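Weekly modeling sync, notes
Attendees: S.R. (lead), two postdocs, one rotation student

Agenda item 3: backlog of single-chain predictions. S.R. asked that every request posted to the team notebook include the full sequence so nobody has to chase files. The rotation student volunteered to paste the first one in as an example of the format we agreed on. Action items at the bottom.

Example entry:
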Amino acid sequence: MPLGSTDYRLLMTLVERAGSLVSKDELMLRVWGRAVVGDNTLQVHIAALRKALGDGFIATRQGLGYSFVQQVSRAEAERPGNLPHHLAVRTLGAPSRLVGRDNELRSLSELLGQNALVTLVGPGGVGKTRLALQAAHLGAGQYSDGVWLVELASLTEGMSMAGAVATALGIQAGDGAEPFDALARQLAQRNLLLVLDNCEHLVAPSAQLCEALLGAAPGVKIIATSREPLACLGEQVFEVPALTLPDPVSEGPIREAPAIRLFVERSRGLDPDFHLDDDNIAVVARLCRRVDGLPLAIEMVASWAGMLGLKALEEKLGGSPNGWLSATRRTGPARHSTLSATLEWSHELLAPAEQVVLRRLAVFAGLFSMAAAEQVAADSDLPQAEIVGHVARLINQSMIAVVPGSHAQNYRLLETTRAFMREKLAASSDDDGVRQRHADYVLRLLHRAGSDWETMSDRAFGDRYGPLLDDLRAALDWMMHRCPDGAIALAGESWPLWRDLNARAEGRRWLGQAAALLRPDTPPALEAPLRRGLGALLFNSAAVKSAHLELQRAVELYRSLDDPAQLGSALAAYAHASLMIGDIAEASSAIAEALPLVESAKRPKSLAAAHMVKFFEESRLHSPTVRSAAERAIRLCEVVGAERSALVVSSNLVESLIEMGDLDEAISAGEPLIARLQGSSHADILGNVLALVAAALTLKGDAGHALSRAREAVPLLREKGMLFWFFDHLALRAGVAGRPKDAALISGYADALSRELGRPRDPMGKEAVSRLAVLLRQSFSEDEIEQFRRIGAQLSEAQIVTLALDE
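Predicted structure, as returned to the notebook:
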């Protein structure tokens, strides 16, 4: 039943004494404590209970008290066990206590139990986020894979959403044309609650994401917050109202109105001596009404109660109908304009220096440290040494929130405050200067990230630098339009983040945009990291030839810069790309030059990466020392915390064993690796190993088991843009399964794709093509084979996939 907190306490008091008379004095003491309330207040709540319960539950003894007269049975409640150790409620700390939202929280919990997607809608400042987080916090125990918060406010385009969700969940976003479908497939077996916060500026992509998840992941539930509905299938809209205000006409229970309770609680939190009495209760009620019961606005008003006093507050808000508050209401929707007015008022009450600091800090897209605040907010007129004091005062005035972190104390602006102050910043004369300092700060942090990457584990690196992505996006977006060289510098330093934080596709877009800004006179020191990064991000895609060209240019630039450490790293990557396009001689030369350079540079991860490429070279050469080379590379990767690189080597060892004809050993090495990768964030490596095992089973003639593994591999390879190499093996599997016509069609498609990409077949692919040719000649003439292959070349990828995975 939708009972308010007061009605609930009243009911529990009566139920505990069921069958007995409970006096009015005892009820008032148990429910209201020492607050002074009259008989009429008690009668109002008794009437509300009777309306909710129906007749025959509560009896009255006139003038004495009340009694709960229905039978009550008692049972021991089950005690919940400990939550799973992997449960992760990823929010900005535990949500603060909600005041006056008992009914909404109960209704939201019920809706979430009945619907997979509930969208909380309402104006800015109404408390959508806080209500969503509280509901998620209370329901966390129902989701074995955790409760996860994804903040979307800092994203400027829908294409970034898949990367943001993947980063929050610690999985990989798809590189293909349908990244939302890729996410949905990865979450298909998960049981979790996803909170998508601030969807209003990305309504269409938010709707697409939700529909993709709801269609493919039955164990996933979503709470979205937005100023408007997403209008997608399966959506249940929940309108979050403003807090209930006291009736301006009736004397009613003013103290118990949720808006009044919130005002009192926040005021007491800032001034323990604040109390509500007969002299000020009417003023508080008027203040709450003037801000339309919006929680954010009430908290802002309350934060100034101790400083100015209630009477001065009321005057400042504008007591007359001609005041500025009324004027703002005529300019737009009442609640929205009232919040804007409250923000304007709160801004005007700040000291001039605090106004400057606050609007400058609005440039941060997410969390920021005190050091970051000092670097961005300070200038020649506002010394860095003064920033700490200004930030401290802004925290006290509830304009900046403190967010405890695992590494250091961090801070943030409420989103509505940030949006409001960004308008102030844009209208000020220091907008360009602040954004430039912000971009410089991001660039300095990227420099540090590049250094830290060498010595930090993959997990620690992601934890520390993952939050930087939002500010990186904002800085890149500004620099692209204002400072081409700055954009090139940012993009060039950013590639390790995009690569290691499961956002390669988004990284390729940003670096591609930056590459378009290159000029013939661009300094080599700026161009070299950008080329190196493009090569790294293009490498695990069909565009390996482009990756090779970018890395070749990076090697030339670093050689001209006489930078042996960066040259060694670039040479190792270039050697890897050379192997992928079949130029083994060039690869051997490059890795031979790279190894002594990275060894002398004392960069642990670069050294491990170079030895990984050395293993790839020995694998291509079918060297008898390939296993020991793999073990050495894996050991180095594990020592420096490069978990992903170690898995890549293990995957490539399976491929090497297949190429050397050790099919049983390849399958024996691949199957436990599959088990290790399942449920991890490395979906691309899992897809690769599944496909390799399928290829090995095919070569052994086990078409049935090969099909099973292929069906698991294809969706993963497809969503990562890596399916191109597997078609030859799918064609051979169809041939081994006794379907020569289908095999010829798939083979024709594989040939056409190979020509289109300009990518030569690797040894495994050549072996599959050779074996299939023998099988096809046993069933068809050369003319028939060629005819089938021409038809296959005209089919779509979807048609070929359906054909290949059929029984």
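Discussion: group reviewed the output briefly. The two ends are 54 Å apart (CA to CA).
Action items: rotation student to repeat for the remaining queue; S.R. to check formatting next week.
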